[in-house]
Amino acid sequence: MPLFVPAGCATLPPMPQNLEPLAVELGRRLAAKGWMLATAESCTGGWIAKLVTDVAGSSRWFDRGFVTYSNASKQDMLGVSAHTLAANGAVSEAVVREMALGALQRSAARISVAVSGIAGPGGESPGKPVGTVWLAWAHVDSDRVLTEVMHFDGDRDAVRRQSVGAAMQRLIALLSDVG
């Protein structure tokens, strides 16, 4: 069974200022499926996990969150390959793919989201300006991982907020597409 149908995935709805309704809707959809979620977060520092655990009853649909800010923690906690990190850098499609899969392998979750980015104000590198964020979503019943790079404007808080919102919006959309 395919994981996600990427058609139409390029556009997300406008980002709400208050992210709480996204967490509530995400929880509603996960609970309806009887699925657990795991998060693997770098630049968002556990913000996705914080939002979902703010929702009463989230223990029914949220298994765990991995905050893996350093490269060593990505390797130790999620099994990201040292070679992948060296060859691509932490903010890359290859790394978030391995983060999403590692979160699934190390949890009871059926679906995961991973995020790694450059929130700023520093940290940019050639081809990876501040605001570059890679996201990945994986599901246990599929060998496909959906990845997406986004470029957000604003200060550190704005980049992180938009990253969290995009991760949750896409999870909600994907839960409509998978059985």
Blueprint (SSEs and pairs):
Blueprint: H1 20-33, E1 37-41, H2 47-53, E2 62-67, H3 71-78, H4 82-88, H5 93-105, E3 111-117, E4 132-139, E5 145-151, H6 156-177
Helix pairs in contact: 1-6
Number of strands: 5
Strand order of the largest sheet: 2-1-3-4-5
Sequence of secondary-structure elements: HEHEHHHEEEH
Strand content: 15-25%
Based on secondary structure, the structural category is alpha/beta
The best one-word shape is: globular
Instruction: Evaluate the radius of gyration.
Output: 15 Å
Tally the helices.
Answer: 6
Terminal Cα separation, in Å? 9 Å
What does the average pLDDT come to? 92
Can you tell me the residue ranges where pLDDT is under 50 for at least 5 consecutive residues? 1-10
How is the main sheet built? 5 strands, mixed
Fraction of helical residues: 25-40%
Question: Can you tag this structure with a few keywords?
Answer:
179 residues; alpha/beta; 6 helices; disordered N terminus
General description of the model:
Helix 1 packs parallel to helix 6. This protein starts with 19 loop residues before the first helix and ends with a helix. It is α/β, with parallel strands linked by helices and about 180 residues long. It is globular. It has helices at about 20-35, 45-55, 70-80, 80-90, 95-105, 155-175, and strands at about 35-40, 60-65, 110-115, 130-140, 145-150. About 40% of the residues lie in helices and about 20% in strands. The chain contains 6 helices and 5 strands. Strands 2-1-3-4-5 form a 5-stranded mixed β-sheet, with helices on both faces.
